[in-house]
Automatic annotation (TrEMBL):
This is Major facilitator superfamily (MFS) profile domain-containing protein. The chain crosses the membrane at residues 39-62, 82-104, 111-131, 137-158, 170-188, 194-215. GO terms for cellular component: membrane. Keywords: Membrane, Transmembrane, Transmembrane helix. The keyword Transmembrane helix applies. It is found in: Membrane. It is a multi-pass membrane protein. One of its GO terms (molecular function) is transmembrane transporter activity. The lineage of its organism: Eukaryota, Metazoa, Chordata, Craniata, Vertebrata.
């Protein structure tokens, strides 16, 4: 007859018949002790991207009235140009969505978030230094590009990092931060001119890039790259210690990943 320790070892090695009730009880025992501080820090760092997205969406509303009445004729926008200034973000976002899908598979979720902060910062920097209407357009396209990448990568990062019991709650932070970003830029626009408002909007993506340097890559991506030990360390970093079911869970994820890869291979 198998002892509990033998059964646990079989489950972690991926062999033997799984005992769902026993596995769930181990999860309950673990989750009653675990501290998810690192998970929440990783979530906070990643949702700086959606906040930046909200700043991009809301920026045109307080900036346009001033840009349409500015004394410099090179920067003054007419009605048509103002319409383009507000909507050209979607052009960059469309490209960013396609680019983000490629980036998450090639460089990972973490690096994708770090890279997408660069167009945010560069775009707002170009707007800050703008000397003509075309520089304003380029800045808006770049921030739209970053927004498209962010809208794809951040929900994926959170869903792969979070435990299933908090995945929905943490996932809802994405849309919440977009709305808070829009509201924040509206409020800031009451007190700042369009250049200082762009400076304010460049702060969250800068923090995103810095904070993500200290956050882990998702276990799923690490498994897809054959880095099982790093995947276990990533799980442990967001749970305080290596969970007792990590071996079997990672083995199951590896099997899913292998099946996904096999399905993409031509027969």
């Amino acid at each position: 007859m198998e002892t509990p320790s033998e059964r646990r070892r079989l489950l972690e090695d991926g062999g033997g018949e799984e005992d769902p009730a026993g596995l769930i009880s181990e999860q309950d025992a673990y989750l009653s002790k675990v501290q998810n501080r690192n998970l929440y820090l990783a979530t906070f760092a990643s949702v700086l991207g959606p906040m930046s997205f909200g700043f991009v969406l809301g920026y045109s509303s307080p900036a346009l009235p001033e840009l349409m009445q500015i004394s410099d004729p090179r920067l003054r926008l007419d009605a048509v140009q103002a319409s383009w200034f507000g909507s050209i973000v979607t052009v960059g976002a469309a490209v960013g969505g396609l680019l983000g899908g490629w980036m998450v598979e090639k460089v990972g979720r973490k690096l994708s978030l770090m890279f997408c902060s660069l167009p945010f910062v560069f775009g707002f920097t170009i707007i800050i230094a703008a000397q003509n209407v075309w520089m304003l357009y380029v800045g808006r396209v770049l921030t739209g590009l970053a927004s498209g990448v962010t809208s794809l990568v951040v929900p994926l990062y959170i869903s792969e990092m979070a435990h299933e019991r908090v995945r929905g709650t943490l996932g809802s932070c994405v849309q919440l931060m977009v709305v808070l970003g829009i509201m924040g830029v509206y409020l800031a626009g009451l007190f700042l001119d369009w250049r200082w408002l762009a400076i304010c909007c460049s702060v969250p993506p800068t923090l995103l890039m810095v904070c993500m340097c200290f956050m882990p890559e998702t276990p799923r991506f690490l498994l897809s790259q054959g880095k099982r030990r790093e995947a276990e360390e990533a799980c442990a970093s967001c749970g305080g210690r290596t969970p007792p079911w990590s071996g079997s869970a990672l083995a199951s994820r590896a099997a899913v990943t292998s099946g996904a890869r096999a399905s993409r291979c031509p027969t």
